[in-house]
Write a structure and sequence with these properties.
304 residues
């Protein structure tokens, strides 16, 4: 290996070692927590930390943007040296970090002898799921809060039901879990959606791609979630396409914060819709599967 090739290998290793996936996962969890607290604050006059979480999310978004800019700069430098991207190497792998099973992620230490406490807020998640899907919980699940489950596995099950166009199955999967698991969908879906949208478009999603994605997904999402509001999907599409935050705020205007379950459920259904448009099954969301080949731009045009 020449000195130049050795330098290129070291630079590429440094770029691959940047914690983009971890930062993206943290950013999405902060955003999910902010949405939940904002909704709770609608019912309370007390300051419960929404502003502080908002600042933390902003800092994390800046960190994620800086990491992406660093990776892009390294790629440009390598290209100038004649050491372009490795054939077959695919950028944008943050979704794999988000989709790891819960047992594969570090968990906070639980005080010895203190069991985890079950939810004590009643079946509000199930009530909202029924409003969104139009599917009531089964008689045996009525009045129950659901079980704790792995969120990434839940997303794969939901995607399978969406691909089959089975709204009853979608309702069963969502009713079966508790609010903690369901709200976790807001944290694991953003990087997955960004990647799937990029594959459908043939390039990384840009703000001008929002109308194309809306056309591709709106009808199917509405048929599976007849109770969802249009602005929920619009906000998700804005985030996927990285529309500047100020533009997103201008779109929303003074509209009050939506229910936190709406974003989580709609994002999971949108994941299944994009998978179906790409002709992929839910198994492709397994972080250990080989990376699907991104279609060429002309192939992406044919799917629109």
């Amino acid at each position: 290996m020449s000195l130049l090739q050795d330098l290129g290998a070291q630079l590429r290793a440094a770029a691959d070692g940047l914690p983009t996936g971890e930062v993206a996962a943290a950013m999405n969890k902060l955003r999910s927590a902010t949405e939940l607290l904002r909704w709770v604050q609608e019912e309370s006059s007390r300051d419960i930390g929404v502003a502080r979480l908002g600042h933390a999310t902003e800092h994390t978004e800046n960190a994620a943007a800086a990491l992406r800019a660093t990776q892009d700069a390294i790629e440009r430098y390598l290209a100038q040296l004649g050491l372009g991207a490795t054939p077959g190497a695919v950028p944008g792998q943050e979704w794999r970090t988000a989709m790891r099973r819960e047992e594969e992620r570090p968990r906070p230490e639980q005080p010895e002898g203190e069991p985890e406490r079950p939810e004590a807020l009643g079946p509000w998640w199930q009530q909202r799921v029924a409003q969104l899907t139009g599917e009531a919980p089964s008689a045996e699940r009525a009045g129950r809060t659901g079980e704790q489950a792995d969120t990434s596995e839940l997303l794969r099950r939901i995607a399978a039901g969406v691909r089959a166009g089975d709204r009853a199955r979608l309702g069963r999967e969502l009713h079966a879990v508790n609010a903690s698991t369901g709200l976790g969908l807001s944290a694991v879906t953003p990087t997955v959606l960004h990647r799937l949208a990029g594959d459908l478009l043939g390039h990384d999603p840009r703000p001008e791609d929002v109308p194309r994605l809306r056309t591709a997904a709106e009808g199917r999402v509405k048929s599976l979630l007849p109770g969802t509001e249009p602005h929920v999907l619009e906000t998700l599409l804005d985030r996927i396409c990285r529309v500047p935050v100020q533009q997103q705020q201008q779109k929303r205007g003074d509209r009050p914060a939506g229910h936190p379950a709406d974003t989580a459920v709609t994002a999971s259904v949108l994941t299944g819709v994009l998978l179906a448009r790409l002709g992929r099954d839910a198994g492709s969301l397994d972080p250990n599967t080989p990376e699907p080949v991104r279609p060429r731009p002309d192939e992406a045009e044919e799917r629109r």
